[in-house]
Design a protein that fits this description.
The structure holds 3 protein chains of 3 kinds.
Chain A: H1 25-28, H2 30-33, H3 48-67, H4 94-114, H5 140-148, E1 150-156, E2 159-165, H6 174-185, H7 197-206, H8 216-220, H9 238-247, H10 250-262
Antiparallel strand pairs in A: 1-2
Helix pairs in contact in A: 4-6, 5-7, 6-7
Chain B: H1 4-30, E1 36-37, E2 44-45, H2 51-62, H3 116-119, H4 123-131, E3 149-153, E4 176-180, H5 182-192
Helix pairs in contact in B: 2-5, 4-5
Chain C: H1 7-12, H2 22-65, H3 78-110, H4 117-140, H5 156-175, H6 184-209, H7 216-249, H8 256-269, H9 285-297, H10 299-313, H11 324-347, H12 349-355, H13 359-389, H14 396-428, H15 435-475
Helix pairs in contact in C: 2-3, 2-4, 2-13, 2-15, 3-4, 3-5, 3-7, 3-13, 4-5, 5-6, 6-7, 6-8, 7-11, 7-13, 8-10, 9-11, 10-11, 11-13, 11-14, 13-14, 13-15, 14-15
Chain lengths: 263, 210, 497
Amino acid sequence: MPDAPKAALPSDATLRPDQGEQHDVTEIHAALLREQPEPHDGFEPVSLWLVALTGVLLFWGGYYLANFSGRFEADEYSEFPHGQMTAAALPETPEQKFARIGAQVFNANCVVCHQASGEGVSGQFPPLAGSDWVNVDGAARKIRIVLHGLGGPITINGTAFNNQMNSFKDSLSDTDIAAVLTYVRSSWGNKGGPVSVDEVKAIRAETASRDAAWTAEELLNIPLTGGAAPAPGAPPGVDQLKETLKALPPDQLKALLDGLEAK
Amino acid sequence: MNYGPLLFLGILFTLAGSWFGLVLLPNQQLGALQPNVNTNTGAIYPQPIPGEAAQGREIYRSLGCNYCHTQQVRPDGFGADIQRGWGKRRSVARDYIYQKPVMLGSSRTGPDLTNIGERQPSYDWHYTHLYNPQTTSKGSIMPPHAFLFRTQRIAPDGPSTNALKLSGEFAPAPGWEVVPTPEATQLVEYLRSLKSSVDIPEAPLPKSEE
Amino acid sequence: MSQPATPGVLAALSPRDADTSSSRRAELAEIDASTSGTVLLFFLAGMVWLLIGTAFALLASYKLHAPDFLSGQAWLTFGRIRTAHLNAVIFGFSAEVAVGVLLWLMCRLCRVPLMAQSVINAAAVFWNVGLTVGIVGILKGDTTGVEYLEMPKYATPILFVAFALIAVWTIVIFRFRREQHLYVSQWYLLAAVLWFPWLYSTAQLLLVLEPARGTVQAAVNWWFGHNVLGLWFTPIGLAAIYYFLPKVIGRPIHSYYLSVLGFWTLALFYNWNGFHHLVGGPFPAWMITISIVASVMMIIPVVSTAINHHFTMVGHFGKLKYSPTLRFIVFGAVSYTVSSLQGVLSSVRWFSEVAHFTHHTVAHAHWGMYAFFTMTMFGSMYYILPRITQREWPSERLISIHFWCTAVGIILYVAPLSWGGWLQGKAMLDATVPFIDVVKITLPWLKLRTLMGLLLAVGHVAFFANLVWILARRFGPYRQPEPMILAGVTPAAPVGK
């Protein structure tokens, strides 16, 4: 603090100051008295650069307003004069595009339950990473699950789950489904080749009349590889039969045997 | 010269400009929009949302959900909204004519919800997510809304039909269950009502697949 | 300053100014005395709301990266705490301090003592009552859901009465001014009190009382929201800078012509900016385009003002060492330029595509409302309070803490978060990036924000302590005044602080 030669302090230091009383007005208004004068204007001219900048901006503004306003119409949402703006396509090979769609569809639809890591949520949503339902050769069951959803008990990697998966047949196209399943099969260490759009198309057509979500038991009836499920009464392959029989609970097994016998 | 009156007039005139251009004109162009009637199916879109969903909207508003979630889909080619599955087409003014207040949102701390009813119709998912977002979305920064639920003893004749399916660290103590309060149900009904992938003249749904 | 007021001081001042005469000073003394009670009331209330608003802010910021914190009750949920923060700092702190500065400046510049103090003091009471009711209402869940207008219907009429009374009496003061020449600050102040009630009443009518149909609400919302910043806070902030900058250094404003250009281009263009908050939104193209054009045109007033301020200061930056007022004012003025240019950039479509809906917008809002407006208000208070309390600031240390904590705190909040928001936006544009990963990108920037918020809070507490102390001096025993000049340096020429 700068040292100040102090004026004499009043004898009674507890006296409240007020104008016109003991204390020097200049002391009370010290702040006021050392003030600079009230502000006033200088008159430097405006720089020509600023004038030029103003001109440029006005010109740009007029141009932009005239050309990007959709003719000031109430229902013209695109600012571009020639119709809807489409994504500026980055150069992509078909494989890259397919991979991108797969990732996008997964992020948009599957992450909410199966998580971005594919790990699912324990007790709620099954994992896709390292799942024994994913890491099998054919895509027949997977395509059906995505089309119509899945409900009820299911065992994956030895853990039981019992939840409801939404159906996506109305919101995802054949390409979307093929791409997302390809993505699932090639992520997080999963094995399995790409899923073809044609296969999805075929299975969608075949199951066109179906609305309900699949159950695990129904799906286990369906062969892993190849297109259609065996026609009713047609003999299943031996491996297929073994697998199906193993997965069935006893009363269903009995019903199946009775059914086969009846044919 | 007394510039006071000139200043006064200039101040009023300049604001009158945008009052005219940004308030009156938009009201004239958009303020009387009617729902669209589909000439093929006769379907009317949009429609005011029904009872429970309307109550749920009030809860959405009162909790301030619109400070983290938007409800507007940007056009294809401007942002990645459509690629993220947030909508099949951009949002337009007609989508909002029955909403009071319109909660477009201005921040995407969480995803856009314009079409969440199409993308996620599952009650279970919404209940568990609202109860504690970590159950369905690990690492989420959305706050838990356990106050929209009630933890109660499981009745002697068994758990409630609408008890939440919680497991692990989120599950209540054994013998207890978590059930949604009416507010939670209303809020979920509201979220399930959010659907706008309908063809309208000024924003048709895209026809071709990728 | 090394001597208390003596003839030496008076002689050292520019002799051409009639302003230095004792009668002129007596007039200023009378005016200051007439405003003192009212201005003190607004400043004190404003500072209390700053502390409350800061507490809400810290809570909200922390919750964004620790969502489980205090999440058991609905009234503490993020959506309500964030809203309470916003309303407390905008309608509590910022607006009340703004009114205090507005009244003091208008009276001084019009050379008229404040009239109807009891009416305006009553308005202050109304205001604070209305605001308290409104914020409690928000925490209860009665929010209107309209951004910047969340206080429920039962609170806002009380506020509106307060605004109206203040506006009316400011216009009356202006009408009965004794000074013929209108200084640039007066233009901005008059504009602010004419514009704000118009904005507020239109918004309340078309959004809360008789809501317009559909997206017209959003249109009115952002016409209002942006104009609160551009036509209420910005003019008051600029008026303060235009007054205190030349006042403290004792030099004229560089160019009257630039002042004219700056004011009228701001008045013409700023109010059309509103829809730049809606780029890509459900609106016909022309509405968005017109706001983008208006936003880009704002370069003209911003650059004009920046040139004006800079060339006024040039050669006098050394005085920043001594004057707390000047430090905060210059910080505010520079931040005005930077945040405004950031705003212009944000409204252009190619930038908005990335940054819209991200934390970049939040950072920009704080760059404007805090780094520009709040710091300018702090500077104004540092100048005004000694004059209305007739005391000097008690603690240099508290001023230093205040300045450094707020300056460092706000810069390390807004600049990194702007960048973090950009990164967030870029990731959001790539649909192959899962949304949860987009959220993860923001976390370090949000945590830094909380840390900087703590620093800001320390600064606020330091200032509040100093404020209480100077008030205690006002109502306590008289003491020899020692002017608060920072750094303990005796300047060669007298410095008007």
